[in-house]
Protein: ABC transporter ATP-binding protein
Amino acid sequence: MAKITLSKLRHSYMPAPKSPSDYALKEIDLDWSDGGAYALLGPSGCGKSTLLNIISGLLVPSEGQILFDGQDVTALPPDQRNIAQVFQFPVIYDTMTVYDNLAFPLRNRGRDEDTVRDRVMAIAEMLEVTEMLDQKAAGLSPDNKQKISMGRGLVREDVNVVMFDEPLTVIDPHLKWKLRSKLKELHQRVKATMIYVTHDQTEALTFADQVVVMQDGEVVQIGTPVELFDRPAHTFVGHFIGSPGMNILPCELQAGSAHFADQPIALEGPIQGEANGKTEIGIRPEFVSLADTGLAATVTKVSDVGRHTVVECQANGSRINAVIEGAGPAVGSPVHLDFRRDQTRLYVDGWLATTPDTAAEAAQ
Structure:
């Protein structure tokens, strides 16, 4: 296990990059603690797999350094980094038994058979595959094959980091939650540093202690699942995380106050900086309520999702979602929307530009 440091890391697939748009990865500085559970989250093409391949040694970055426990490993090949990697498609040997698949990484490194047996049995018990040890891997279901692939990554005790590259993509939806739970349990038991790459917010938020959200090769926020939901540092984070995502509304600033549809909107607190640029209001649907007064809107869709109802409205050409309890109003109904002030934020050029009003919070 190791602390992983990425220092001034940038990468371009072009031989002579000249502008920021030429880089698949913009400058990244990160520290991942020894034994932590981390996720790289973002849409396809945002740079997640590129970053994973750089950490594993499959790619050499154009600029910057990768350090394991302070040692520069930037130029080291994968086999000298003590890394285990689990891919989308299970990497196992179908002609071998489950036992021999789990034993292979240890035997390949010359471990004695007593050590091999102890580790294989321990990992098999954690994965709940002990009864399958004598079976040929070819006959396993896809989820069990992926379990064995995970076990091959965990069986070694000398790995610096275990990396998962969208490991649940090919798993049936009704089995994904089982493997997610098992993976979280495994991390808590083996205490290895783990990095999980995914475009699925549910997978990232349920597995990781810290989530790194990426967009267009750039890290836009690092935080706990709660921090990412409660206080998105960027509109992309607000939109990408949550179901439905954060409402993002264009606004104008007049005398330091945000206005939408010619109506002043109370913000969580003071605006930081000059606020020169594209200005938008961000508020999560969970903090929008139907009221007797407030922003005038028209209901365009009502969705009963079981635990609550999502009411989609239109106001001044913008869509606004509200999450409410009970039945929603009829489609086409005029309504008024109230925004909870302490959850209403201003973003400038995508970035959070307000701070909480501590005096107002103390008075609540």
